[in-house]
């Protein structure tokens, strides 16, 4: 008789990576909101050449950070999927490091959790 072994899932890596992605997304949304606030504030000032593009740049910066956060969350889901843990861990680590430039690594906490979670995902823990 063959014995069926239960599928091991990288639960801790998944949880840490998911929290990292959520933190990154939250910070990115704050950056987008700050860009919109800057745009409104600059629109009320008597500097016509500087009214819209500063807020737009900040909002676009936050949107790119939000895309990085979504990639981290997708990597976290892959970590929880059997036989996809390694690619998910790599995605989480890469996009957590890239988020350092767009969301300050989710205020550094998202960066740390993402690297640890991605490494645990690669180790299948």
Q: How would a textbook summarize the main sheet?
A: none
* Domains, number: 1
Structural class: mainly alpha
- Tell me what portion of residues adopts beta-strand conformation: under 5%
DSSP strand tally = 0
Order of helices and strands: HHHHH
Low-confidence runs: none
Helix content: over 70%
What is the radius of gyration computed over CA atoms, rounded to a whole number of angstroms? Answer: 19 Å
How many helix segments? 5
Between the first and last Cα atoms, what is the distance in angstroms?
29 Å
Overall, the morphology is rod-shaped
What is the mean pLDDT?
A: 89
Describe this structure in words.
This protein is mainly α and 125 residues long. The protein has one domain (11-122). It has five helices and no strands. It has helices at residues 11-43, 53-80, 85-102, 104-107, 109-122. Helix 1 runs antiparallel to helix 2 (53-80). The longest helix is centred in the N-terminal third of the chain and has 33 residues, at 11-43. The radius of gyration is 19 Å and the shape is rod-shaped.
In terms of topology, how is this protein built?
Blueprint: H1 11-43, H2 53-80, H3 85-102, H4 104-107, H5 109-122
């Amino acid at each position: 008789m063959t014995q069926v072994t239960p599928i091991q899932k990288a639960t801790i890596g998944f949880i840490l990576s998911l929290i990292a992605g959520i933190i990154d997304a939250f910070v990115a949304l704050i950056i987008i909101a700050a860009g919109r606030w800057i745009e409104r504030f600059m629109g009320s000032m008597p500097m016509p050449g500087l009214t819209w593009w500063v807020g737009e740049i900040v909002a676009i910066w936050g949107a790119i950070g939000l895309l990085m956060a979504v990639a981290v969350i997708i990597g976290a889901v892959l970590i929880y999927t059997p036989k996809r843990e390694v690619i998910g861990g790599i995605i989480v680590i890469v996009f957590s490091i890239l988020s350092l430039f767009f969301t300050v690594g989710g205020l550094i906490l998202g960066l740390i959790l993402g690297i640890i979670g991605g490494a645990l995902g690669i180790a299948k823990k």
